[in-house]
Amino acid sequence: MAVTLREITMNNFIECIGLRVGEAQKNCVASNMHSLAEAKADKVSNPFVIYGDKQMVGFIMYDYTIGEHRGYLSRLMIDARFQGKGYARAALAEVMERLERMPGIRDIQTSFDPENHAAESLYASFGLARTGELVDGEVIVRLKLAEQRASPRGRSDSANSACRKYAFDR
Ligand SMILES: CC(C)(COP(=O)(O)OP(=O)(O)OC[C@H]1O[C@@H](n2cnc3c(N)ncnc32)[C@H](O)[C@@H]1OP(=O)(O)O)[C@@H](O)C(=O)NCCC(=O)NCCS
Fold first, then answer.
1. Whose CA is nearest to atom 9 of ligand 1?
2. Tens digit of each residue's pLDDT (9 = 90 or more) over 57-104
3. What are phi and psi of 100, to 5 degrees?
4. According to CATH, what is the number of the domain 4-169?
5. For the whole model, what pTM was predicted?
6. What pLDDT shows up at residue 132?
7. What are all long-range contacts of 66-69, with beta carbons under 8 Å and residues at least 24 apart?
8. Consecutive H or E run containing 135
9. What is the pLDDT of residues 10-69, one digit of tens each?
């Protein structure tokens, strides 16, 4: 499954905020509208729309700040119409590769609602393993890239890693 990640532009942002997860998944992830606003405000998040061929199928966002040594996958959603076709796996593979190339990065982190078994299984297949932490009600998972332990400065783990956070704005 090939996907491309494209920047958010005037030509695609309306379609991006119109993407929808399934009714039962609404509490799993913030709305794309919220995520785009967050990215505009925090100035570190990298939001992208996911395309399968010419069709927009989802949204992904990540960040890494040099000196913090930890990369974050902060959002991932695939529109309900396009789930189960391998789009999330392909988009995540691309983002993991991008993050792994960041200078000084030591680990990659994300989180999910404890009931979100699809997310857990997807993340586990990329080596993102439970750390035992539960932050803002979400399970933290992390992939360690280097032996040296990361010690991120200037942010809390809850700052941007939670996928479900702000799901209330739907
Ligand atoms: C989780 C989500 C991103 C998966 O997207 P997707 O494109 O359907 O996933 P893929 O087809 O690429 O499948 C990748 C893996 O996810 C897991 N997965 C996907 N759907 C699943 C399901 N219904 N049950 C269990 N595992 C599932 C599997 O491990 C799967 O790998 P496999 O096909 O080798 O078994 C999608 O269901 C979604 O957008 N959910 C709502 C938002 C969300 O939960 N985002 C994550 C927030 S932390």
1. 88
2. 999 999 999 889 999 999 999 999 999 999 999 999 999 999 999 999
3. -65, -25
4. 3.40.630.30
5. 0.91
6. 97
7. 66/102, 66/103, 66/104, 67/104, 67/153, 68/150, 68/152, 68/153, 68/154, 68/155, 69/104, 69/105, 69/106, 69/107, 69/150, 69/151, 69/152
8. strand 129-135
9. 999 999 999 999 999 999 999 999 999 999 999 999 999 999 989 999 999 999 998 899
- The structure tokens listed for 116 are 């979100």
Return the residue whose CA atom lies nearest to atom 18 of ligand 1: 118
- Cα within 13 Å of Cα(65), Cβ side: 12
Residue of 53, 44, 15, 10 whose CA lies nearest to 32: 15
pLDDT for position 148:
43
Which two three-digit tokens encode residue 121?
Answer: 């299984």
Atom of ligand 1 nearest to the CA of 28: 44
CA of 80 to the centre of ligand 1 (A): 10
> Could you give the CA distance from residue 140 to residue 39 in angstroms, rounded to a whole number?
21
Kindly give the distance from the C-alpha atom of residue 162 to the centroid of ligand 1, in angstroms, as a whole number. 17
CB-based contact 3:54 (threshold 8 Å): no
Give residue limits of the domains in the chain: 4-169
